[in-house]
Automatic annotation (TrEMBL):
GO molecular function, one term: serine-type endopeptidase activity
Coiled-coil zones: none
Gene source species: Tagetes erecta (African marigold)
Alphabetized Pfam families for the sequence: fn3_6 (PF17766), Inhibitor_I9 (PF05922), PA (PF02225), Peptidase_S8 (PF00082)
Single biological process term from Gene Ontology: proteolysis
Protein name: Uncharacterized protein
């Protein structure tokens, strides 16, 4: 292995922003009491308005009078005219009032009306993924796992920011006696117990990446966390009372030599979990420093969680494929920071932006797509590409991609005098939008929304638009969905193992940041919202810390099994999790599914693997004894060989040719109820496959008892197979516990 080989960080890179123009202040004025009960079927509506051209309001009272005119005009003969509840003057132009559906309909034809939406009830809660994942203070799994107390999470990344409130040690006990780590910087405490540099630079986190990932995995509770006033709430990592040790291995790149040195130190110093939000291209495991270091870690009972990479939706684009690593893909969460594009044809099209200025005019402005005539660089709003194009005072459509940053495209528009940017996904980006700290008013929209906007531009000689900022919206029921950028399987290094293993939150994740991106007056509690499998990985690292705290005797493979067999296949709306194209996500996108921490805490059965069990599997990959020895750190003779799918993994990846029948076994350990019986209660078998289970009843009489069953995958010679891959699953159930094992089949 070359000592100067380099590994790209597995993150959606976000630049530190030294300046951003405005800090959003959410303000409103209470005007009148709630309307009378006589209003038929009245509900609270929030009404968005545009000030008509030529009208100005010299005094707030004038604007208020205009708001009242909408209510007067829609008076339907009830005993009392509807009254304003709130009049808005800064967040947007409009008001809230108790209205009936008929009154709302009557408003729609009035000059200045934009939209009306029913009010929603919100509550303050964490920002936001712990709640999304079912983790609640003083309840359930969080409380039962003691919030990760006593567990040490080692993070290999770009450094950290001591003194940030996320790394305050309130409520965190001293580290366990086994800890032998070092702190090479001032500011360590019972939360941040170690900081070391392996880059020969400094421990300072100039990138922000390591600060963000560390706080996602194990940041303490911080109230009032937000960016630009958005996503306001209590920030907390997955294991908020666990200890954190930072090993800086990345500056701009991450060298294998530094990674291995850090992993070596972390093992010696006593970490329990390793979190690596970085990775490289697929190579044999014996050439992969992360895979080699991770094997040494799991030999000592250390759990290793790694990002899957950000090269999706391209097939076989994964990093960190070794079966002893938890490979984590990225999903969306049920929170949007919504900015809505309002077109001149009255279409309202939702997008996202973290920067939501309070003073952005709601009147229509010219809408342009320079890419129609200006070439590819102009379409991507590459730096300097708009200098000779008239975009001054206009809303500019820019295509995502081209190797240029999303925020950088906005800077190009701003430099050219543009008023706002609509960032339109390319077809491969699908529906995945991100809330960025843009430098001007913006809306990042899905691919199909971008097509709609461009179609409108082509349909009229004078296209116009504006952007309506709606702030934080919770409860998007299409979540979780697979992020378009999340790398996909099948694995190149080991096609007989399904990868990724799991998906977790990785889109628009708010966490600690070294500096303010919004010119906040808060000098310490600085946060940012970024995306990538780098963000999903530390979620699973923190969840693994909780599981290790709750089950200290579980092996890394047992923890991994618990996470995988209890994962969810459905989104909040009850439908199958979708990919970026609104299609059901396949096994190479989501692995076993979306993490469910509380269920993982009580999986019923686990598929355990001991370190030596990997040796015949590695020999079965065709590695020489010497190459296997590089990985397992001892002399090996490959006298025993097993096919990849025979490894006692919580999923199967099988290749079947014509007439093939392949037999595999799995051994499960009972960690649920002593006296319990499991049977197959749910099975999904694709066309072209016949599936037989040998030993389809598992009857346990004690805890930690092991039982083995067989599975036969048979190619159905009578069936016509229309695709090279198919997938399915089988579910063991005891009545109390359900244990699902997915499988993929490659037809050759």
């Amino acid at each position: 292995m070359s000592s100067n080989s380099q590994t790209n960080m597995g993150t959606k890179r976000s630049n530190l922003l030294p300046q951003v123009i405005f800090t959003l202040l959410l303000t409103f004025t209470t005007i009148f009491t709630i309307t009378a009960a006589e209003l038929e079927h009245a509900e609270t509506y929030i009404v968005h308005l545009n000030t008509p051209n030529g009208i100005t309001f010299d005094k707030p009272e004038d604007r208020q009078t205009w708001y009242h005119s909408f209510l007067t005009a829609t008076h339907t003969g009830s005993n009392e005219q509807p009254s304003l509840i709130h009049g808005y003057h800064h967040v947007f132009t409009g008001f809230a009032a108790k209205l009936s559906a008929k009154q709302v309909n009557a408003m729609e034809n009035m000059d200045g009306f934009v939209s009306a939406r029913r009010d929603r009830l919100y509550k303050l809660h964490t920002t936001h993924t712990p709640t999304f994942l079912g983790l609640h203070q003083n309840l359930g799994f969080w409380k039962g796992s003691n919030y990760g107390k006593g567990i040490i999470i080692g993070v290999l990344d770009t450094g950290i920011t001591p003194g940030h409130p996320s790394f305050d040690d309130k409520g965190v006990p001293p580290p366990p006696a086994k800890w032998k780590g070092k702190c090479e910087v001032a500011g360590c405490n019972n939360k941040l117990i170690g900081v070391r540099d392996f880059t020969n630079t400094s421990t300072v986190d100039d990138e922000g990446h390591g600060t963000h990932t560390s706080s996602t995995a194990g940041g303490n509770f911080v109230g009032g966390a937000n960016v630009f006033g958005m996503a306001n709430g209590i920030a907390a990592g997955m294991a908020p009372l666990a200890h954190i040790a930072m090993y800086k291995v990345c500056d701009v790149f991450c060298a294998d030599s530094a990674i291995l040195a850090a992993m070596d130190a972390s093992i010696e110093e006593g970490v329990d979990v390793l979190s690596l939000s970085l990775g490289g291209a697929s190579v044999p495991f014996y050439e992969d420093g992360i895979a080699v270091g991770a094997f040494s870690a799991i030999q000592r009972g250390i759990f290793v969680s790694c990002s899957a990479g950000n090269s999706g939706p391209v097939k076989s684009s994964l990093s960190n494929e070794a079966p002893w690593i938890l490979t984590v893909g990225a999903s969306t969460v049920d929170r949007n920071i919504r900015s809505t594009v309002y077109l001149g044809n009255k279409a309202l099209l939702d997008g996202e932006s973290l920067f939501q200025p309070k003073d952005f005019p709601q009147n229509f402005m010219p809408l342009v797509y320079p890419g129609l005539t200006g070439g590819q660089n102009v379409a991507f709003c590459a730096p300097g590409s708009l200098k000779s194009i008239d975009v001054k005072g206009k809303v500019v459509v820019c295509d995502r991609g081209g190797g240029f940053s999303r925020i950088g495209k906005g800077q190009t528009v701003k430099d050219a005098g543009g008023a706002a940017m609509i960032l339109a996904n390319e077809v491969t980006d699908g529906d995945t939008t991100e809330a960025d700290a843009h430098v001007l008013p913006a809306s990042h929209v899905a691919y199909d929304v971008g097509v709609t906007i461009k179609t409108y531009i082509n349909s009229t000689s004078s296209p116009v638009a504006t952007i309506i900022f709606k702030g934080t919206v919770i409860g998007v029921d299409s979540a979780p969905a697979v992020a378009s950028f999340s790398s996909r399987g099948p694995s190149l290094s080991s096609p007989g193992i399904v990868k990724p293993d799991i998906i977790g939150p990785g889109v628009s994740i708010l966490a600690a940041w070294p500096v303010s991106v919004d010119n906040s007056t808060l000098t310490k509690a600085t946060f940012n919202m970024i995306s990538g499998t780098s963000m999903s990985c530390p979620h699973l690292s923190g969840i693994s810390a909780l599981l290790k705290s709750a089950h200290p005797n579980w092996s890394p493979a047992a923890i991994k099994s618990a996470i995988m067999t209890t994962a969810s296949k459905v989104s909040l709306n009850g439908q199958l999790i979708e990919d970026e194209r609104d299609l059901p996500a396949n096994i190479f996108s989501i692995g076993s599914g979306h993490v469910n921490p509380s269920k993982a805490n009580d999986p019923g059965l686990i598929f355990d693997i001991q370190p030596n069990d990997y040796i015949p599997y590695l020999c079965g990959l065709g590695y020489t004894s010497k190459q296997v020895g590089v990985i397992v750190q001892k002399r090996v003779t490959c006298t025993k060989v097993i096919p990849e799918a025979q490894l006692n993994y919580p999923s199967f990846a099988v290749t079947l040719g014509a007439g093939d029948a392949k037999n595999f076994t799995r051994t499960v350990t009972n960690v649920g109820v002593a006296n319990s019986t499991y049977i197959i209660t749910d099975v999904s078998i694709p066309v072209g496959l016949i599936l037989e289970v040998v030993g389809s009843t598992l009857q346990f009489s004690k805890l930690n008892q092991k039982l083995t069953y067989g599975v036969i995958f048979i190619r159905d010679s009578k069936a016509t197979v229309k695709a090279p891959y198919a997938e399915g699953y089988m579910t063991w159930s005891s009545g109390k516990h359900s244990v699902r094992t997915p499988f993929s089949v490659k037809f050759v």
